[in-house]
Amino acid sequence: MIKSMESKSVKNIPPPLSFSDIESVGMRYLSQTDLFQCIWNLGTFCNYSCSYCWPHSHSSKPNYIPLKTLTNTMDKIKKKAREKGFHSFRFSFAGGEPTLQKYFLNLIRHYSNDTKNCNHQGLHIVTNLSQKIKWLKLFTEAVSPLDLTVITASFHREFADCNEFVEKIKFLAENNIICAVSIVMVPQKFDMLLEYAKFFYDHSINVYLQLQEDFNNKIVSNYTKEMIEIMQTSFPLKQEYWTTNIEKTKKQRKRNSILPSKSHIVELIDSSGKARHLDNCDRLNALNFNRYKGWECSAGYRSIIINAKGDIKRGFRCKDKPIGQLNKDFSLLPNNEPCITSACLCTGDNKIPKRRAGTKHTLYKQIKPISESPPE
């Protein structure tokens, strides 16, 4: 029996919220800034072998990319983005386990060295947080020049220890790195995983609950209505997510950071022009707000992904043909393009600003970075 949650409602999501009335969706740090985003899957090599992981996303054999290929690709992406007027960047790395990439720290140092030439530079990593504190110290040194570093720590209870997980997150927080825990909520183990989620949340760590996908990249069908409701509304984003690091660095940081307010990470605008907000992107799948076929999408113009095969695409689940390949030249799209994909289930794809065809809501604009102090 699933235990009731103490706090189910997420602020700023006035029910009922009908997707049929929504005209645009996207992350505020993308739709309200001149930020270009690259989500890069560095390979499938992982030191874990989770029972629910997709076969195409996991390999027990290292598959390293040469450092020169990594840095040249990064530089080329930024050059092409700058040509379109984007001078702020966020690179997001995933895997497999991205931190096991042989040259990962070298790549991050290369990225950090260019911060002075950008309006803003942010980094995001999806990691199982299996690296030891010794490695994490090297990582915090490598990211120190960046304006913002965010980690989504995937907790896999088959391999990870929750107490060690908390200690590592506390260490990262003390070094001005924002962390949240992500848990794939396997339906058959939902109650147990929910207890882990509450454990982290009670330690003032934000938690994202992810729907499980099957090996065909479709959401598994055996969630109950109560499970879905919990994933839609539970664990609202804690204020500590922002204030811990902001207050420590506000006086010494001269550059602005692109930061949304605590419950305004995802923005949805309805037909009347009213903005609604979600506190994390995983809720879009839980709410079934992920069917954008026919919408205009800025993916490929102001953001790209690189998958484990080295394909450069608009999005991980986009049915479009790749726009390029690692180690080869490519071009960003000249304009926004219609979505031709039936369901946008990948969290990274869901983040990209998009709007219903024929509407004029902003998908990107060149403005000064959002103040580092979250609005009241």
Structure keywords:
376 residues, alpha/beta, nine-stranded mixed sheet, six-stranded antiparallel sheet, globular, disordered C terminus
Order of helices and strands: EHEHEHEHEHEHEHHEEHEEEEEHE
Q: How large is the share of residues in beta strands? A: 15-25%
Q: What number is the mean pLDDT?
A: 84
The assigned structural class equals alpha/beta
Residue ranges: pLDDT <50 for 5 or more in a row? 1-15, 241-254, 367-376
* Alpha-carbon distance between the two ends: 38 Å
Quick one: overall form? globular
Number of helices: 10
Main beta sheet strand tally, sense and closure? 9 strands, mixed
Number of strands: 15
Into which percent range does the helicity of residues fall?
A: 25-40%
Name the strands of the widest sheet in spatial order: 7-6-5-4-3-2-11-12-13
C-alpha Rg (nearest Å): 19 Å
